[in-house]
Amino acid sequence: MSAVAAGPATGTSTSWKGLLVQPIAILVVLAGFAVWLATADLTPTERTTLNPADILALTGQHLVLTLESTVLVLVIGIPLGILLTRGPLRRASVYVLAVANFGQAAPAVGLIVLLAAWLGLNSWSAVVALVLYAILPVLRNTMIGIQSVDSRLVEAGRGMGMSAFSVLMKVELPLAVPVMLSGIRTALVLLVGTASLATFVGAGGLGLLITTGVNLFLPKVLVSGALLVALLALSIDWLGRVVETVARPKGLR
Amino acid sequence: MSSTDSATTTAPTGDVTGRSILLDEVTKRYPGQTKPAVDGITLEIPAGKIVMLVGPSGCGKTTTLKMINRLIEPTEGRIVVGDDDVTGIDADELRRRMGYVIQAGGLFPHMTVAANIAIVPKMLGWSKDKIAARVDELLDLVSLDPDTYRDRFPRELSGGQQQRVGVARALAADPPVLLMDEPFGAVDPITRQRLQDELLRIQEELHKTIVIVSHDFDEAVKLGDWIVIFTEGAHIVQYDTPERILAEPANEFVENFIGSGAGLKQLTLNRVRDVELAPAVTCSPGEEAKAVLQRMNEAGGHGHAVVVDRRQRPIGWPTRRQLERLDRIPEGIEPDLPVVGEAATLNDALDTMLVSSAGAALVTGRGEAFRGVITVETVMEAITRSRTAAAEDQAYTPVGTNTNPIETMPSAPVIATSGEDL
Fold first, then answer.
1. Which of B104, B111, B179 minimises the CB distance to A251?
2. pTM confidence score
3. How far out from the chain centre does Cα A59 lie?
4. CB 3.0–4.6 Å: which of A41, B7, B39, B82 could bond B233 by disulfide?
5. pLDDT tens digits for range A140-175
6. Do A161 and B110 touch (CB under 8 A)?
7. Pairing outcome for strands B177-181 and B76-81
8. CB-based contact, B109 to chain A, within 8 Å
9. DSSP B56-92
């Protein structure tokens, strides 16, 4: 039995390099923005709208909105995705996916405004709309992740006397983690971007800068808002990538 | 193809740890299908033996296997392991008491080799130390060095090594019964042969009850103490020892399934040590050729003499004519001597003879010491003899029937042994 020389996975070092480039780029752009903000020749209205304390507060609002809807998306999407791969419920998956597809296909602005008409002008209607909008990638990737686990491994687990639940927890979910995480990252990026629309129902967030910029014709404010949302989305995307790299089960390439 | 482990020829000493299995009128019907997948099978699997389930694809052999550990629940009938009726007990509980091996091992890719092997012991609540010791013991058993392989992940192993770990995992909690579903289907022929030898060696130590599903009749002949040949609906066509199936196939279906060359397949059933070897005149390097020739004449006109070294290992095989030209027996080792070990099968021996085109081969025993000469004639005699012996030998046969036996054979059952159709 000559040993098969199997070195450590070589693909990881390059992906780590890729992971470094993104935050550096984000920081550079952010620093540039800060310098511009401090030195630029701004009108008093612009200066009031773009004062650092307000920007921070809006960013905080934006993040809270994103976080709330993310938690809801995960709490609903993952268990639902798991349930839809179990036994008889498998047949229901077509319908649930259709609803989720509808949620994503519907224009986000329309969804938010419609829900606000129903639930009132507050941050909750924004959160509900965001959840509907972003649940599809989490739901679908959870299902695909579990379904793509080799059925022979499930059989091997059952054949050894593992219960269906323990096969799910110890075999199916760990092996589905990479696919699930990439769905979650997609949902997060979607949420950060779409949370800008929450401002239409008075839920605040960085979208306020954009709408203010449009309404009062302040291009500098508009661009600042858009830039900050983009940077936030990229940061979240980067965080997601880091988690994906770290949480990927050892032994999988 | 040469003798690999001539040193391990000691008689098996371990006690039978396996338990018998009885399928009692077991039927499996799938909803929406008129014909049952398994039709009222009654099958007795003796303790401590290897029983091979073979048949064409779709004949119900895998379903039959999976009903033993109730991965597939039988529609009707009883399953008895040892003295316990296990038809009604908790299926997970039952499966922890049976090893289960699937094609390519079925190892969990996100767990190390050690973690894979430890799954069942962990479920049974063994202590950490006990599990660690057991993992090392099992890796040793399947000929993998524990220190090298314990912490590797499955993708860092070759197919054969993965399969070995799969067997180790199935044996982890020392179950009396081992079920294997086409265990060696996914590896190359040379690795497969090695894994088969390994399984036989392990079985010689452990004496488990092993049930193996295979579509390869040659594998069944090599591994099985008993072979069950199935046709559609898990109808048993013949349940017998490999010897008797080869000597007396029950009908045309079995003949077709055996394929051509049943006589040659019998060669794999006999080992060199089972046949009578021809004696030969031996000599040592440095001896006078004349003296050797004289001894050859006295012994009755042998054509060859065998040169052995101080430890009786054969190093040369000169003919009479070569000796007549020589003054003294030369030193040095002749390359490519046709040598087989006592544990080799007659098939291996014949192979060696054909390769060397000598029509005979030198047989070595313990410590590679020279034992005698095996000739083509000896091999041919052995075939004839074992054929007649198998036909006469009517000892114990385990029960294997169906409640609705098929009266006539399907008209043209042309079955390819490796056919994946149907």
1. B111
2. 0.74
3. 16
4. B39
5. 999 999 999 999 999 999 999 999 999 999 999 999
6. no
7. unpaired
8. yes
9. STTSSHHHHHHHHTTSS--SEEEEEETTEE-SSS-HH
